[in-house]
Amino acid sequence: MIAPMEKLVVAGPRRLARSLLAELQHAGVVHIDPLRPAELGEFRLSPQEESELRRWEAIVSGVDRTLAVLGVTPVASVPFPGTLEEAEAQIRPWVERAEVLGRERAALEEELQSIQLFGAAAQALAGLTYGIDQSPRFGVVPFLVGKPEELLPVRSALDSALQDRYLLESAPMDKQVAAVVVVMRRDLEAARSALSRLGLAELRFPGAFANLPVTQVARRMREREKIAPEELAGVLEEVAKLGRESLTSLQALLTRARDEVLRYKTASDLAAGKYGVALMGWVPQDAKPKVEEALSKLRDQIVYTFEPVDEHHEADQVPVTLKNPAWAKPFELLHGFLNTPKYGSYDPTINIALFFPLFFGIVVGDIGMALLFGYLAWFFGNRAKQGQSVLIPLVGFNIAPAVSRDISKVLTWMAVSAGIWGFLYGEFFGTLAEHLGIFYPNDGHHSGLFPILLNRLEAAETSTLLIVVCLLLGILQLFYAFGLRAYMGYKHHSASHMWEGIGYLAGLIGIVAYAYTFLTGAGAPLTTFILVAGLAVFVVAMFQVARSLGAIMGYLVMPIELLTKGGQILSYIRIYAVGLAGAVLYKLANDAGFAMAEQLGFIGGLIGFAVGAIMFALITLITIMGHVLQPIRLLWIEFGNNYGFFDEVGRAYRPFKSVRDQ
Description:
Layout: E1 5-13, H1 17-27, E2 31-33, E3 41-42, H2 47-70, H3 84-129, E4 138-145, H4 151-162, E5 167-172, E6 177-184, H5 188-197, H6 214-266, E7 271-272, E8 276-284, H7 288-295, E9 303-308, H8 311-314, E10 319-320, H9 333-336, H10 349-364, H11 367-385, E11 390-392, E12 397-399, H12 401-425, H13 432-435, E13 439-441, E14 450-452, H14 459-491, H15 495-520, H16 524-549, H17 553-570, H18 574-643, E15 651-652
Parallel strand pairs: 10-15, 13-14
Antiparallel strand pairs: 1-8, 1-9, 2-8, 3-7, 4-6, 5-6, 7-8, 11-12
């Protein structure tokens, strides 16, 4: 549900502005909005405060640079308790030392990388020049080609440009050919131009080797290849020593400095007169005691009030935070990245928490897949307990521990549901458990440990029941969605939304009643009455929507849309169909593997096991995405669209608090 909020207004003397912000930051529950009344101006920092802000920002920058040299991710900790001057004095030597070590490490790493990339080429080229590259009369143009044949057009180009005033030598390398052109110094540019026309460039060495002749480059690289690693090890040891000495203090300084910067910048949201300041924010109702406790320290010097929110007129301004039971809260992940519900509207978390695992279980319905998702739940949960992020290589996502914890809980519910339905279906990676005699068809001709209670692979026997279950779920979801839309329209005084919800709900009730009689032949008088009454209400609603919108299109669109809504109920059959398709594929994999074992004996069993395992892996990769997306798609599109989840966007609740609590 969306947590009820209250508006907070605080006023006090200007000199207490930073103390007020410090107390609210400590409370960590007030979402501060800019306050801009016509009578007051924007709070502006004094020159001294501006200077202090820049100094705290410099501390943040210095700590960040130092931690980058140390290779440590910033972590909020207990804030540094001292003054700004003490903070600057403490951090200055560490920053200077880190900058020196960082430059030395970068230079050595660059040097070693250059040696690794160009060392072999430098040695080969030096062997071709015989020291001529150091002569004041001759010039050398070194370059690399992929194959010896590529030197033929080089020789032709040099012949055209220089006739016989050059020498071209080459030597094979591992995957390239090193080559040099030796010319008189006056012909250097002509030689370079000839190579350039062929798309070849003179080889230039990077970094410290850039301006040296090839012979000196080769000699220096040989020397540095032995010495530089030792120097780098020494620098790394100094970096580690710096980390041991300073890391705890650096984290404390960073936390304090970021909090100070945040307070200075948030001050611009205050309104200010000559002697006083005012602040406006939003507080969840259950967090009011924290705010009152924080403001009690300034009670004799400030005034404050909490005001109830006018949901009808202020909903666009009120930030939204969700308050759901612990078992359902992790499911906020499944809609939070799409949209923040508007204040006073509907939070779909409970609905998703109830129906997503159910839909997923019906689709997957396999104990083997349940174990796989159970392992994933354990993996994410274990990483979260250890405080480690999870990197998803294919998409480059880095999942924070808090998010991993929620993912683990969602996966646990998915695994439980898939396991329950897997037991009902009697499936363990398809029919593997059936082949092994663990599950058996409950037809009186087979035996095993557990009877298959609902064999979805026997479509002739179970398809009707499972399709009806899926349709009932669709009917429940869409009826609830349109009832919710009508209620929200009434609550927010939106006649078009209210009548739209009433019309579609009544029309669908009539269509479902007619479909029941059409398919079963039962209840004709009653269902006919329901159909007529439902369509009558739909027509009335259609006229009301068109009138409230002032558009004739309401007359044309709603009847077409009503048929579409009926089709959306049918789309819930995909819960059964997608799951059945996956089960059939697993059955084929099992049948292929066991058929080989029966035909070829022990060798066939090994081959069958390998074939089955490969097919299992491929089928899982192919179907897993659909098995997850189909259930959530029904909740996002068929349910979410119809009650208006995407119609209006709310503001996320961002409380003003210490970086330590973020």
